[in-house]
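hi!! sorry for the late reply, been swamped w classes. u asked for the two structures so here they r. pasted raw, havent cleaned anything up. first the sequence of the first protein and right below it the tokens
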Amino acid sequence: MEPIKLIRFTAEVDGTAYFEFLPGPYRGDHWVNGSVFVQEQVFCLIESALQRHHPGFDHYSPATIPESEWVLIIRELEELARRARASHSLADLREAGVGFHRRGVDAEFEQDLRHNSVALADLAEGLASWLQRTLAEHEVVSVLGM
């Protein structure tokens, strides 16, 4: 399994299988300074939160998401972090909305459940915090998919 973490610098990105969280509206640019990144396999773990609160979210297209929807997503990420820290099984994480829909991800995650659960909590908290700071300066944050 890919490392479960929020990537804050483009120098840490290796390849193109990443989701970019871009401050402001998407204007055709990628790998923008100030963006944060999540590896695709890892993004799938939190993707359902975006799908629930941004109608029509598409894994393969850019999405410009307004603050009103991010507020709901942030709450869900914070709750996910709390539940991931307290989890004892994949069932606990599935109840929290973690997306194990990619083949084999659940088995890979379970191989080091405690470490991966804490890493997922850190990712969710880090992204929620980044979103809150970014939304203080921008009305929207865009998510650039595959």
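now the second protein. again sequence first, tokens right under
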Amino acid sequence: MKKNYRIIVIFFYAPVLISCTDIYDICDLPRGVTLQGGFYQKVNGVVSPATAPYFSLYTLGSSTAIYSNQQNISRFGVGLNPLIDSASYSISLGGNYIADTITVVYTSQSTLISPACGNVYLHNLVRIRTTYNTIDSIKIVAPAVNTGSAENLKIYF
């Protein structure tokens, strides 16, 4: 009789134990917010996408690389800190290129995605400054930095 009782208990409680296991993420909406940049070259008035031979990106004043000598990068993404209103980076495009400094000035706002997903910080680009060692110019093409993958900056070199 004890054997039958154990089988009945296991049969009854097994679905309950399995159903309590959370194997799904309730939020299926994107939550990553990154500033997206792309590289371009302008030759004889014609703009075309370009790749950086060896792309490196550091937060200015830090020795920790966000990107370190990534080969043939045409786009990149970097998170922005919502607790400050600007970020400065050292950017290098490869061996024969001189590194530049980029400063991004932005505003941040906490926004509710949904009750299941919670809040994220969205940013709005105000302006951008750069040195012009290798970079020819930078254009803000989409000032809203959000959960989408739209390119925010075009960097010409």
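hope this helps!! also noticed smth abt the second:
The chain has a mean pLDDT of 88.
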